[in-house]
Specification:
Length: about 450
């Protein structure tokens, strides 16, 4: 009961219209300039409830944009992204303050609106550069490709962020420490992430003049598409002006239907699995051989260098340089045309199992919300135990969706752990939840509603 009351109080208190403004950057310098970086609010936590409200509204407007397995996977990937953050915040927050003290070359006033505006523009340029690097550098693509793995495009897609993405942006974040104070940087780093949420939708059409200078849903649809003309285009976060300046802007074409996802879809809902499958592609590139069977990248260091070449690179591809890396001169080269109709990966899921997983998903989200609030006060043993449980919980859904035999075993082990934990702490809610869920799983197995789980994919 205490758990349910906590979730209810958390969600209702966060449904404050004032929190909704953060998702659209509707703020002023005066209200978002803080005395120090510790005072900067946890904007993601404040807006999370609104994100789910907008997802529900989008689903009601056009449910064709959603698939249950894909939506759960996207949100669960976002849960993993948040779980594995340093102190629940982005990675650069752990280093920015100390780096700023050592390398900043100009002491801009920390309480000035001019510094705030400069911080906004520099964050936009840094994100454009970092985002572009993650698309055009093989190693960076490993960090970022998770975000592009969904074959749907909706608000839940915004949550599908690989937990290594902050690694790809770290250097570009820290470069701002040369002039931007921490209290200004943290605000813009957070608000930029919030703004990008509402760009992931098909229900918002072209926005006319706004499309010329903002990264609107229309512009971002191009970025997420796998049509040849859309590859490596529209990297902006809030502003699209950097794409226009550096030649990576492409408008949405009304005469060509967009298909979403990776050029080669991975056909999986495994939230941990698709964090690392790109590693094999990086390794395989280093083993590339020519028509005579000779290695192209000979020696260890040449193989390492190959990992930094553009995704899809092969000998003979023309490249150009942007900042410190190479990119393909022709972004459409060797990109296959879209063959209609496009059929997304969507293994069948019977209604009883779907309802069971929906209930478990709501439990996972409630547990995540509580963990996000309590993590700072937890002891290390409790923190690591709770963290491991939530990762296993999120992973279980991927096994069910991919119809893997291991799903029943993993789920039952999780539920038994909940029961044992409940008995140890005499938490009757956990005990009844674990036992009840085990009974439901047994019934689903007996009635043949998880029979597809016997097929190993």
């Amino acid at each position: 009961m205490d758990f349910l009351l906590f979730v209810l109080n958390k969600t209702t208190s966060d449904l404050n219209p004032n929190n909704l403004r953060y998702m659209f950057y509707f703020v002023t310098p005066n209200e978002t300039i803080y005395n120090n970086d510790e005072e900067v609010p946890h904007y993601l936590s404040l807006t999370m409830t609104w994100m789910f409200v907008l997802m529900i509204l989008e689903f009601l407007l056009d449910d064709r944009n959603y698939a249950f397995n894909d939506t759960v996977t996207s949100v669960n990937t976002g849960v993993l992204f948040s779980l594995l953050k340093v102190r629940g915040r982005f990675l650069s927050r752990a280093f920015y303050g100390s780096v700023y003290e050592r390398i900043h070359i100009i002491d801009f006033p920390k309480d000035s609106a001019y510094t705030w505006i400069l911080g906004f523009l520099l964050q936009e340029l840094s994100y454009y550069s970092g985002h572009r690097a993650m698309h055009e550098v093989g190693l960076g693509w490993w960090f970022h490709q998770v975000h592009h793995s969904s074959e749907y495009f909706n608000f839940s897609t915004a949550m599908r962020i690989g937990f290594l993405e902050d690694v790809g942006l770290l250097a570009f974040d820290l470069m701002q420490a040369t002039i931007i104070p921490p209290n200004i940087f943290f605000v813009h780093r957070c608000l930029s992430l919030m703004f990008r949420f509402w760009q992931h939708t098909n229900v918002i059409p072209n926005l006319g003049p706004l499309d010329y200078f903002l990264c609107t849903p229309s512009n971002h649809r191009v970025h997420h598409a796998r049509n040849p003309y859309c590859i490596d285009r529209n990297y902006g976060a809030v502003l699209i002006i950097w794409d226009r300046l550096f030649g990576t802007y492409e408008p949405e074409r009304k005469d060509e239907k967009i298909a979403y996802g990776l050029v080669k879809p991975i056909a999986s809902f495994d939230p941990l699995g698709f964090q690392f499958f790109e590693v094999k592609a990086l390794y395989d590139r280093g083993q590339t051989r020519d028509q005579m069977g000779k290695e192209i990248f000979t020696g260890f260091w040449n193989k390492v260098k190959a990992a930094f070449l553009p995704p899809g690179y092969f000998p003979g591809v023309k490249t150009k340089r942007f900042l410190m890396w190479l990119y393909k001169a022709d972004n459409t080269e060797r990109i296959p045309k879209i063959e209609n109709p496009v059929v997304p990966y969507n293994p069948p899921l019977c209604a009883p199992l779907r309802y069971y997983l929906l209930f478990q998903w709501l439990i996972l989200l409630g547990n995540f919300l509580k963990f996000a609030v309590d993590r700072q006060t937890m002891s290390w043993p409790l923190f690591l135990t709770y963290l491991s449980y939530l990762i296993l919980f999120a992973q279980t859904f991927g096994y069910y969706f991919d119809q893997r035999r291991i799903c029943i075993f993993v789920d039952c082990c999780r539920l038994i752990a909940v029961i044992v934990s409940g008995l140890f702490m005499w938490d009757t809610t956990s005990i009844f939840y674990g036992i009840g869920s085990l009974i439901v799983v047994s019934v689903l197995i007996t009635t043949g509603n998880i029979k597809t789980a016997e097929k190993q994919t």
